[in-house]
Amino acid sequence: MPGGISLEQIQEYMKMQSEQDRKNRTITVEAENVQEGLKKASIELGISVSGLEYEIIARGSTGTFGIGRTPWKIFVYEHSVQVKTSSEAAQEAARETDSQAEAAAKPKDLPGEVFVRLSGDGAFLRATKPQGRGPRATEIMAREKLSLRGVTSFDAALVSRIVKHADGEYIRVADVQYNPSHDATLSADITDGAMKAVIVINEPGFGGADISADYVRSFLASNGVVHGLKDDVLEEIELSPRYGRPIIAAEGTRAHDGANARVDYNFKLERDEVTLREKDGRVDFKDISHVENVVAGQLLARKIPAEAGQPGETVTGTIIPATRGKDCDLVVGKNVKLSEDGLTALADINGQVLLLGGKINVEPIYSIPGDVNLRTGNILFLGSVIVRGNVEDGFSVKAAGNIEIFGSVGKCLLDAEGDIFVHQGIAAKTEGKIRCGKSLYSKFIEHAHVDAGEYVVVTDGIVHSHVDANRMILCQGKRAQIVGGRLRASEEINSKILGSVAGTETLLEVGYDPRSKERLVALEEEKRTVEKSLEEVDLNIKTLENLLRVQKKLPPEKAQYLSEENEKRSELLHKLEECVREIGQINAHLSSLTTIGKISASERVYPGVKLAIKSANLAVRTEFKFVTFFLQGGEVKVTKYEAFDEELMRRR
What we know:
Blueprint: H1 7-23, E1 26-31, H2 34-45, E2 52-58, E3 72-78, H3 86-95, H4 98-105, E4 114-119, E5 122-127, H5 139-148, H6 156-165, E6 171-174, E7 185-191, E8 196-202, H7 213-222, H8 231-239, E9 247-251, E10 262-265, E11 274-275, E12 277-279, E13 282-284, E14 293-294, E15 299-304, E16 312-313, E17 319-320, E18 336-338, E19 344-347, E20 351-356, E21 359-363, E22 365-368, E23 379-381, E24 384-387, E25 396-399, E26 403-405, E27 413-416, E28 420-422, E29 426-436, E30 440-442, E31 445-452, E32 455-458, E33 462-469, E34 472-475, E35 481-489, E36 492-498, E37 506-510, H9 514-551, H10 556-592, E38 598-605, E39 609-613, E40 616-619, E41 624-632, E42 635-640, E43 650-651
Parallel strand pairs: 22-24, 23-25, 24-26, 25-27, 26-28, 27-29, 28-30, 29-31, 30-32, 31-33, 32-34, 33-35, 34-36, 35-36, 35-37, 36-38, 37-39
Antiparallel strand pairs: 1-3, 2-3, 4-5, 5-6, 7-8, 8-9, 10-15, 11-43, 12-13, 14-20, 15-19, 16-17, 18-19, 20-21, 38-41, 39-40, 41-42
């Protein structure tokens, strides 16, 4: 025996190692089969079968008719983590949650391992250190593994040092009787449309050599695999061989189509948001600026050209072409010019930048430093208007863009295709009218007629006004209250308080398009008027035709009258046809609306409030608190208050 070690020393050492193995939660068992052995080990170690790993020390035999039967002998220990390919590890990491990642950062309890590698140059041994509180690899494990590979004569002292230091390096420990016919064998399969090469290594027999990374490379090349070799995986195969399981040894490069051309705009595309900040019950409008000003020469947009894309390649070297991205146009309108290369858009003048119909336009802004009064006259402007003061009684401001008034509005006419902002509120004295294509934002509204294409947002109350909004009416703030008048919205009416203690009649309607509904009412009235006129004309024509049959000829004045009445009849029939057609279109539109609508009060609803949701009505006779009214089964029902989208009060 090398090193002059006596048999008694070896026996004492083996006894000590056996005791250490028991402490390290390892065990050697004998059983009729592997499964039975694992069950025995599970009971001994107090670990479920799924948490165990094993190595076969001696294979059992069933014998002949039970004669010569020998048991299986297996070495069992706690489960260790198997080698994963780099792609498998990356996919697993991508699926982990933050909590899993945090847990993964903590040391895992993994046992130390022993690996034996055989080649024509001899037998090599390496040992690895445990992780966390995992058990160390033992010399008995090394001896058993060497024995399983047919290595019986080795330097025991060297084996002991290798296991003790466990530095992970292979060290030659013995000569071997090399048997090339027992070398490990390799099979390869090209899958996933030639995007993966999967190998399976079969365990070597007695005296057979293990697989090397260079051999795997050569084998793959002989099978046509020339691209995407995973060198880290191949090195791991050589360092810590795992047999009988598929390993992804090469992976192709997938093609990446080119990104489409796009336009990066240097201005906000969404302008319907305004931040309303309330301080001590008052709204601070200082930060509100719906108008986005630009100066001549300013960059408005830049076109990012389409990209060619990156071709891919299969593991067999076939190139996968990539598709070039789609092109797009950078389109400019008024007061904007394109650069010579067509990739940038620049402002020609100072003004407001707008994206209208896909075209970039710069509209000039008309700014009035004071009030709209006799000095300024009525304002009509094809752009946006800013009034730094008030709009006095009897004047009008009309704009193709937005209107922003920093003061107050009296008995006036405001008409804008965009939004209207009134910082100090509207006191219209029953005659003022406000119309906007988008939304109205105001501190308060009193005795006004309002027609908004989208939202009406108010903080201090709506009093005795007629307000129509194609989407929502929102009245929220410390003094927010809707009292009197008639308010209509397609989606929702939401206020802090609805009605008043005095029981003021307040009409609230939701669930339909108020503009279309109003037009429908007007058309139906017009239809009735036309039908009545048509009846009168038909009666006149019938009287004259009867006279013609009796007299055979009408006097010139009556003949002229008959001709005029026939012409009038044709006009009325055409008008009636137009009314019926438009009524049908509006009814179809109203029927197609999916919005049911709701009415909400974040504090209370007083008696005197009358609600209408689509065709259902409810007259409030008792006080409600914190409620939302909605439509169910053709009736108005009540539930607990449903808060509005607070983003509407934080529009910028």
